[in-house]
Design brief:
The chain has 160 residues and is of the alpha+beta class. Helix content is 18%, strand content 29%. The longest helix is centred in the middle third of the chain and has 13 residues, at 57-69.
């Protein structure tokens, strides 16, 4: 189930929480930096599908526990820079959706790759450890296959 939805309109802006977002197939979330081609990695070569990113609350909690055990500050879910936070799903189950079609509510998506952590969230949050703490917990990128709307409370259904 979706517990949080975040977007931001430019690469370095703080993520903003939303109750629902409009999505467009092969484009992204309306108003989000990657749909607007203003994301930090929008010009990556070769280009990657960056329509939407997903992460699990359990993964965030595990990563943050590891960080706090090292005396580092925890990251708020918005500071992960991911668009969708999912409750009641293990990180490994989300990671297993790479290469598969699944639904968020009525919207179909295709998992395209793992979101390997980088230093950008640490830099923007002015906190240390995201790169190491979120290894294996960074979530996935997905391609939107349908136009539609994604809302808080929508459930993830592994359809294929």
């Amino acid at each position: 189930m979706i517990s949080s939805i975040f977007i931001c309109s430019n690469a370095s802006f703080p993520m903003q929480m939303k109750e629902k977002v409009k999505v467009r197939a092969n484009y992204g979330i309306e108003g989000d930096r990657y749909a607007l081609q203003l994301g930090a990695f929008s010009k990556s070569k070769p280009p990657k599908v960056r329509d939407i990113t997903l992460i699990t609350k359990i993964g965030i909690d595990k990563a943050n526990w590891q960080l706090t055990q090292q005396g580092l500050k925890a990251f708020d879910p918005s500071e992960s820079r991911r668009n969708i936070v999912l409750e009641n799903l293990l990180p490994e189950d989300l990671n297993a959706l790479v290469g598969k079609i699944f639904n968020l509510g009525a919207t179909r998506l295709m998992g395209t790759e793992l979101c390997v952590p980088c230093e950008r969230p640490s830099k923007l949050a002015n906190k240390k450890g995201f790169l190491d703490g979120y290894e294996s917990y960074g979530g996935i990128r997905a391609q939107l296959l349908d136009d539609g709307e994604i809302c808080l409370g929508d459930t993830l259904i592994n359809s294929i």
